[in-house]
């Protein structure tokens, strides 16, 4: 449900950039026709190297944008960003980032790019952008509401209502991984608190749990469960048990979130969604245990856009800001 | 933020009725002036006696409405209902009710009243109506978003965005009590599932937990913690420990919900909110443990409208339906 696009003059393009803890990805999102879905072209990426500090990450991001600005066909609507960290819904600045990205807190991402390139720029959190992409042109298109659940290193998500992402008053909405889970007991979460769903449902948790039951057989924690899934597929019982436990715990958490939000559908995304049928069936089992009676048939589907989702969402966020005549962030030379 | 009220011709009145498991309350809600808050007048109530079955409850409700229709000053905008159970957001019928109200599921509450009295009628869940009342004229007035938490026999709530209650695709949104809690372990909830926040945070849970530590000293479970609070105030250590545990667990749950929803404020309502400073301080302590860093200063305040909230919310829901020119439910004689 794109908002009020009637007055845009097609075709046009948007420079979209997605800054994560591992890489900075960028592309040109082309809007050729009001009835066609946007095309993502000229995808490029560089390592984020967040240990170099927030200023360096912003400089790398600016460099990626500069290259795309040169390549983008005119007219250009502006720059749409999606970044790791909590993004202020009012300014597009980084309101909060954890220790994985030192010096990222406070970076005036959108304002900096708007001033540097003399075009409109917006920023939103990468998870919110991912959800917005799926809401506009992916698995959640035309749904009244949807809960996107992203399972990767951590566990994040977003609640989408009438095609828009609920960002929250502080930009924090959707931190599903940091909600309580009855099976997480007193496990410590990456955030420092205890009892969080992320501790038993994320890709990291999957690998950690597998390694606890097979301490003599270390596997790379960054594999996000691929290796565990491979071993389960090969019939290894411990791998099967781990996938089953983490999937069921995730399904229980999804049931719990649905009891709070009652979305029309749940969309699964992130690197762990390829963990296979054992994991997927466990999700359905856990969900059935926890979802209230009228919610038991809520569809749980997979995302459709993959890594293009945050870029499309970032572009859509820029267009929303332009269309709604919000001062999206800043004009050049403010 | 009442919606589009400009074309209403003041003064007018609404017959409002609130059907719970214990009593059916009704009143006339008077809108005398666009700038004044509505006045709740002529409050009346009868026992619900739900064990008599859904048809009997609907008959009692109809009787309460009939009396109020006679007393209501004209012009009358219609009938706004708030009822226990899950209410279909599309029809106002009872989509689902638990065993406490046998035969309540399927009752066409709003359609029945519209036909019977020849006026417009709407229905929404009582918890949603309570939240809508607080959003329009109580503790959540003018907030961008708010999470209402109702602590009584059970634990319910509602997320309010821009003055409107998020009902969910099936009308189930806001069942906060049926979200997971890391301290609930494998405790069985009233709904039959395990590990739910309600099991350790509701008024019922408060009394149950106190009785476990003082098995030889039974107190009435329907007191909703008043007696436990009284004993705590008198200095009884077990009562203090119980209040402290349940309050802290509730605060943790509120932190967890804020990590998902990031509301501008949290509003506490329900019969347990008078449990005293020990309970209230424990909520703040638990919240601080669980809320993510940018959310730690989210205000947690008390509701302002008390038992008038669902009646005001039910009236507002009717007016929204009229103002938005939705076919609110049905016209007489359909």
TrEMBL record, chains A, B:
Protein name as annotated: ROK family protein
Annotated signal peptide: none
Coiled coil stretches, renumbered: none
Family according to the record: Belongs to the ROK (NagC/XylR) family.
InterPro entries recorded: ATPase_NBD (IPR043129), ROK (IPR000600)
Top-level taxon of origin: Bacteria
Species this chain originates from: Berryella wangjianweii
Pfam families: ROK
Gene3D superfamilies: 3.30.420.40
